[in-house]
Automatic annotation (TrEMBL), chain A:
This is Sugar ABC transporter substrate-binding protein. Pfam families: SBP_bac_1 (PF01547). Residues 398-421 are annotated as: Disordered. It comes from the Bacteria. Keywords: Signal. PANTHER family: ARABINOSE-BINDING PROTEIN-RELATED, DIACETYLCHITOBIOSE BINDING PROTEIN DASA. The keyword Flavoprotein does not apply. Residues 1-23 form the signal peptide. The keyword Signal applies. It comes from Streptomyces solincola.
Amino acid sequence: MKTGFTRAAAPLVLLCLAVLAAAGCGAGGGGSSANQVTVWMYPVIMDPKANAAYWGGVEKGFERAHPGTDLRIEQQPWENRDQKLATAFGGGKGPDVVLLGPDQIPQYQANGVLRPVDGAIRSARAAYRPAALKAMTLDGKVYAAPIYHTVTSTLYNRRLLAKAGLKEPPATWAALKAAAPKLKRAGIATLDYSASGEASLNMSFYPLLWQAGGRVFDESGRRTAFAGPEGVEALTFLVELYRAGAVPRSALTNANLFTDQALGRQQVAMGYTNTPADAALAAQAWGSDNVIVGPALGGPRKQVVFGMPGGLGINAAGRNTAGAERFVAYMTQPAQIAALGRAGGFFSPRSDVTVPGTGAHAKEYEAALAYAFPGEPHRAARQLQALLAPEIQAALTGEKSPREALTAAAEAGDDLLARQR
Amino acid sequence: MSRVESRATPPSPEEEPEAAGPEKARTPVATGPAETRTAEAAGSPETRTPEAAGLVAAVAADGTRTPVATAAPPEDRTVPPVTAPGPPTGRKSAARRREALAGLAFVAPMLVLFLVFRIGPTLGAAFLSLTDYRLSGDWAFVGAGNYARLLDDRLFWEALGVTALYTALYVPMTVALALGTAVLLHRTLWLRGFFRGLFFLPYVTSIVLAAVIWKWIYEVEDGLLNTALGGLGLGPVDFLGSESLVLPSIAAASAWKGFGYSMLILLAGLQSVPREVTEAAVIDGANTWQRFRWVTLPLLRPVLFFVLVIEAIGAFQVFDAMYVMTAGGPVRASYSLVYFLYDAGFKFFDFGYACAVGLVLFLVVLVFSLIQRRLVGREVD
């Protein structure tokens, strides 16, 4: 009898070989070959078509300028950005070049996966805005070459302000507190806020902390500093607004979005960390006549907004670091910075390049750029946010006083900093 | 086979088309597959084994059920009884070995994939949990250090508490919903397939999509539920912003999303409860509730056990719904164990620690399943 085994043997052997071959290819195919440069890019240009067209053009342009080099720009989503990058680096399959923000640099640098880009930006160095370069610098070395600069500022809904009888958009904490009761009488909340655990504090609590004159970390970077009197003042300001109904209750689950949040839905009159992209969306949703972009919100001590450079970092374990450096040098040329700024609505990190303003509010954002602060880079910056965010929620829900909440977060934060290797 | 089932009478002619289905696949050859038949047929109207045939005869001799017994269609009796295999000869045992090898060869691809993609990573995680693993690939052996740290970590215990509470809310909610709809569907003859599909639909929906929609439903300002409550002069209720309401709210949304699978399993279980048993209960004067409580439910026990275990394991691994709806908030009131693991791994880059959390979760689920097996599955075997 010819059994099933004999009959099945040949196809099974083939299948096993195919599986093994596929696994083998997978294991070997992750890195780039000698003349290939892989880049991880994100949808920095919001319109997907424009994004694809722009980066497609960069690929062609670079390959023309550097014959023999195979440039591969891989588009990644913003979601779970660090998770994917950490996994790739951890598995030794990171890209040669990756887009990084200042607050990402310390943790990757501490883990030894980034190579300084000083060599690649030798010719561009003098032209950079000092603040942009400083944000990307750690221990005297630059770890990401800035290719654009973002900025946020206040965004007001003119129709809602008028409904409450407000003639001037509130531009300071004091004006905001004074406007809140008037807006409440008109059935409108005053200030949009994002307190979700996944919302970056750079776009929610930290600007208030900086406006109050506070800091997240102390000078040495070994201890937290947000629980000082300035921090308490900032959190008290927020909690009082929340209790009075001036910050919508949906704030607890809001996550720094515009569209699916109270501001976009015209339930609240203003935001204070809104991007030019938000202003463009607002123009579509509310009508451009109703959109006001104001100056950076002024606190009791400072007028400051969040805005940071985006830059290209190089994988220390990449197979083609020479190619990676050539690509970084290519992207930091004035022509490329201007082109990317135009396509994505960004500002220039170089003082010798001005991006011709295309957006309706380019002038206001250009003015806010002078008050832009890129955050406090620290290798534990993102981790600390995970500890602080729930305590801010505890203060908002009334479970803890602002001081208690910040003290609890500071204790956990100092533990975290002490544990850093 | 249990005592209840051994009272089974042959199916009436109207029932035959349904009952005949699996029987036709049955061959009279008394080899391996036939031995598994009894287990497979448990719970279905099984009248073909000599044992059952004898019982039918007994019932007939009793005089009361004779008409039913003789109503069985003729082909019922044409299936020869299972013959016991003779002592294996050398040739036969060689053939059997070849068959076993063939079987092994057929499962080999799956086995290889399972070993490579399931068991391998699990062992890898177990090893990583004993190390301090860095992004750059450098690592140091720390022994039980990660586990010791875990026992001291307040957040870990909080997350474990949240997960346990969520499981305690989600599992009864889902199983009750699944059992309720399964019973209703079982009784529905009209458009049963349509309703079955309709109830199953949420299960095949993406959890992220479902969570986003439920977030809108629960919203304080202008949410569907709060608008409805407002119409009744109640609320607004901050479903996702209140520490006491957030877990029940997420559990309810997840139950809506997840009950379809258990419903199908329970429906299949209900359909395999022999009709004769419930008919006998009717004759004994049991009302609907008594029939359900004392006849159907005990027979459903193995299925119910399976459903409970599967749902409990799913509940212990909850993450997506919380990530999307509340990001663990407010004040970590919905911060589950897997969320804690995710943060340890991907926010804190503490891979060794995250692996330790993963293994602890595995142990918790294992112990929980064993306890459940003792409590619910006592009579399964």
